[in-house]
Automatic annotation (TrEMBL), chain A:
The chain crosses the membrane at residues 406-425. It is an enzyme of class 2 (transferase). PANTHER family: N-ACETYLGLUCOSAMINYL-PHOSPHATIDYLINOSITOL BIOSYNTHETIC PROTEIN, PHOSPHATIDYLINOSITOL N-ACETYLGLUCOSAMINYLTRANSFERASE SUBUNIT A. GO terms for biological process: GPI anchor biosynthetic process. Pathway: Glycolipid biosynthesis; glycosylphosphatidylinositol-anchor biosynthesis. It comes from Vanilla planifolia (Vanilla). One of its GO terms (molecular function) is phosphatidylinositol N-acetylglucosaminyltransferase activity. Its EC number is 2.4.1.198. GO terms for cellular component: glycosylphosphatidylinositol-N-acetylglucosaminyltransferase (GPI-GnT) complex. This is phosphatidylinositol N-acetylglucosaminyltransferase. Keywords: Glycosyltransferase, GPI-anchor biosynthesis, Membrane, Transferase, Transmembrane, Transmembrane helix.
UniProtKB/TrEMBL annotation, chain B:
PANTHER family: PHOSPHATIDYLINOSITOL GLYCAN, CLASS C, PHOSPHATIDYLINOSITOL N-ACETYLGLUCOSAMINYLTRANSFERASE SUBUNIT C. Its main location: membrane. It is a multi-pass membrane protein. Pfam families: GPI2. InterPro entries: Plno_GlcNAc_GPI2. It comes from Vanilla planifolia (Vanilla). Belongs to the PIGC family. Keywords: GPI-anchor biosynthesis, Membrane, Transmembrane, Transmembrane helix. This is Phosphatidylinositol N-acetylglucosaminyltransferase subunit C. It comes from the Eukaryota. Pathway: Glycolipid biosynthesis; glycosylphosphatidylinositol-anchor biosynthesis.
Length: 454, 273
């Protein structure tokens, strides 16, 4: 492509280094969660750093086709329907043609998949490796080793990571977990945490009074998020501290249990249940409280803690997974996931409250976390991936063979068939016939990182 | 000035935290010596004793014998070698029985259009399902006041055995036979696990004696019925009570369990719905 605008020397240097990245995951806007916001903010900041970023996800309801988001972020909602928990049906090869045409049309150089239980991500990474693209995988969650589901997922992860160029984990605990699950070389795994949009999560200018202490809980009310712990903890805390009030945002299977607890202990005036809170209103719920309570039983990172801390709340959390790495010790009170220890931690947090200045905490969070920093660190990973040598099919098959006596051979078979399909596709639809998309350059200037979409 | 700065970098100690951006002097793929330090291996592995495993496996052998005895009764009734007058006595036991008695004609003609071979094949597979899913350490029928609900698999197991009884009963020549076999099978499949469980709870010695007696009786009855069946049953019992436990002890050394901070926390209290 020939550009008419004169580009400065520095700009040219940047353009030489600029990556062309395709982010792939089943989880993206309009869904909301840790993975979704990670992809969105990372993409926005990478675009600001001068890279080209395209997102691929499955169709959400009527939202299919190509959409543009803030800053010219192009999103392909490919026509695959999700069948379970926002996941597409694992078809192995069905996404190969559409992925190939997207990769060629957009002139992609790096494919970056997110989340271990996204089937679309695994398939896309498999096709990308077959076609010789550089691949990067980000793991956002933790898995055990004991139950059938985990054993199966770990095998899938081993397949995907067998021939990956670089992997990213969101916390050091997550890195240990990923290395154990997939047997990947620890040197290939980078730890790049999540961040928080501190401009969106600001404390209220006036400090709340301490006559009544409000404890905020915002999470899905399910077993893994420790809703059962809340059922045990809340009555005890209310009995111990009469001036404490709980605000619970979120919905889920365990909501009934919480409501039963509220009836049983007559805590209707002490426990407020808000139901599901839209992401745009999370901040307004957070700033109404003094303490944020996270009762998760497993958590790789927990962005919710960052959002709460950015709003100036003191956090009380269970000591699980990557949570102890997230905040400095004086900004969080950790507890073992038992009701007794949780109550002790909440009591300690209430005692600490007068020394906590929400505004100072917000300023500290600004220094500790920023998506810009995350993007820069991810950029380093991309640079490393490009330095990795290209392997031919035989060399790559050897890596798969090492994955297990039976699984290794199965993986090889899957890759060989994929390779043949790719050859067939090249004959049937030569890449010369696929038109490249001209790049859109947005005007330079401060852009709001808020989601704007039709 | 520059040396001071580099000294500062050298002095910086890596810590296992995610905040504050990239740690000076360390890349993001830096793997510290403390990597995987919190991993615990084989924390919950129970060292098993050969004798204990063998004695425990007796329960399985015992139940296998009970099922074998029921099958023997089926075969004998199919050949009609049991006296009919004895059956009349059982009639008077209770109301439940009369319900079963009323339904007997229905069972009698239930599978008339199906060949006997299919029925036998189906019954054998159902009994295999029953044996495979049976709860050998407890009972499916709850005595009043028992706490735990039976699991799904033990319920499926019980149902498989009942269907097998219905199928076999439907092949019998007389309605009274149908009723008697149904009644007998139901009683054994429903209550024998409870009886054996109670015996084991009362005295383990009694349980062992009872089991050995049962095994002996079953083997002798099966021997008189068919030699091939006897050999199969005997080898099965040897496998379950001697080879199986020995095998289990041998493969114990390959046990590999991993625990660490990434595990989902277990709740230390019961969730009462």
């Amino acid at each position: 492509m020939h550009r008419k605008n004169p580009v400065s020397f520095l700009g040219q240097m940047c353009m030489l280094k600029a990556h062309r990245i395709l982010m792939v995951s089943d989880f993206f806007f309009p869904n909301f969660g840790g993975v979704e916001s990670h992809i969105y903010y990372l993409s926005q900041c990478l675009i600001k750093l001068g890279h080209k970023v395209v997102v691929m996800t499955h169709a959400y309801g009527n939202r299919a086709g190509v959409r543009y988001m803030t800053g010219g972020l192009k999103v392909y909602y490919i026509p695959c329907r999700p069948f379970l928990m926002q996941n597409t049906l694992p078809t192995f090869y069905a996404t190969l043609p559409i992925l190939r045409s997207i990769l060629i049309r957009e002139g992609i150089s790096i494919v970056h998949g997110h989340q271990a239980f996204s089937t679309l991500c695994h398939e896309a990474l498999m096709h990308a490796r077959t076609m010789g693209y550089k691949t990067i995988f980000t793991d956002h969650s933790l898995y055990g080793f004991a139950d059938v589901g985990s054993i199966h997922m770990n095998k899938v992860l081993q397949f995907t990571l067998a021939d990956i160029d670089q992997a990213i984990c969101v916390s050091h605990t997550s890195k240990e977990n990923t290395v154990l699950r997939s047997g990947i070389d620890p040197e290939k795994v980078f730890v790049v945490p999540n961040a928080v949009d501190t401009a969106m999560f600001t404390p209220v200018p006036t400090r709340l009074s301490y006559d009544e202490i409000v404890i905020v809980v915002i999470s899905r009310l399910v077993y893994r998020k420790g809703a059962d712990l809340l059922v045990e903890v809340i009555p005890e805390v209310c009995q111990l501290h009469p001036n404490v009030r709980f605000v619970i945002g979120g919905d889920g299977l365990k909501r009934v249990r919480l409501e039963e607890m509220r009836e049983k202990y007559s805590l209707q005036d002490k426990v407020e249940m808000l139901g599901a809170v839209p992401h745009a209103q999370v901040r307004s719920v957070l700033v109404s409280g003094h303490i944020f309570l996270n009762s998760s039983l497993t958590e790789a990172f927990c962005i919710a803690i960052l959002e709460a801390a950015s709003c100036g709340l003191l956090t009380v959390s269970t000591r699980v997974g990557g949570v102890p790495e997230v905040l400095p010790d004086d900004m969080i009170v950790l507890a073992e996931p038992t009701p007794g220890d949780m109550v002790r931690a909440i009591t300690k947090a209430i005692e600490m409250l007068p020394d906590v200045n929400p505004h100072d905490m917000h300023l500290r969070m600004k220094k500790l976390y920023s998506w810009h920093d995350v993007a820069k660190r991810t950029e380093v990973v991309y640079d490393r991936a490009l330095l990795c040598s290209n392997k031919n099919l035989l060399q790559r098959l050897q890596r798969y063979l090492k994955c297990g006596a039976w699984a290794g051979k199965l993986f090889c078979l899957v890759m060989i068939i994929n390779f043949l399909l790719w050859l067939l596709l090249q004959r049937w639809q030569p890449s010369d016939n696929i038109e490249e998309v001209p790049d859109i350059h947005m005007h330079e200037g401060r852009q709001d990182t808020g989601v704007s979409d039709s | 000035m520059e040396s001071e700065a580099s000294k500062k970098l050298v002095q910086y100690k890596w810590s296992k935290v995610a905040y504050g951006g990239m740690q000076p002097g360390y890349d993001d793929n830096y793997t510290d010596e403390s990597f995987l330090e919190d991993m615990v291996m084989n924390a919950n592995v129970v060292k098993r004793d050969f004798w204990k495993v063998m004695l425990d496996s007796i329960s399985i052998s015992q139940y296998l014998c009970i099922v074998a005895l029921v099958v023997v009764v089926w075969i004998q009734t199919l050949h009609s070698t049991i006296d009919e007058t004895f059956l009349h006595y059982l009639l008077k036991v209770s109301f439940f029985i009369s319900g079963l008695y009323i339904l007997a004609p229905v069972y009698h003609t239930l599978t008339r259009s199906i060949s006997s071979d299919s029925i036998w094949a189906l019954s054998v597979s159902l009994l295999l399902v029953h044996l495979f899913l049976h709860n050998y350490s407890g009972y499916t029928i709850r005595p009043p006041g028992a706490q735990n609900n039976p699991s799904l698999s033990s319920n499926v197991s019980l149902n498989a055995s009942i269907i097998a009884s219905v199928l076999i009963a439907s092949r019998l020549p007389l309605r009274l036979h149908v009723f008697a076999v149904m009644f007998f099978s139901l009683q054994v499949f429903l209550f024998s696990p409870l009886v054996t469980f109670s015996i084991r709870n009362y005295s383990f010695k009694l349980h062992l004696w009872f089991s050995f007696l049962l095994i002996f009786v079953t083997l002798s009855v099966v021997y008189s019925l068919h030699v091939m069946l006897f050999i199969i049953l005997l080898s099965l019992l040897v496998f379950i009570s001697i080879v199986g436990p020995y095998w289990l002890i041998r493969i114990q050394e390959y046990k590999f369990e991993i625990h660490g901070p990434w595990d989902e926390a277990k709740l230390c209290f019961d969730i009462t719905e």
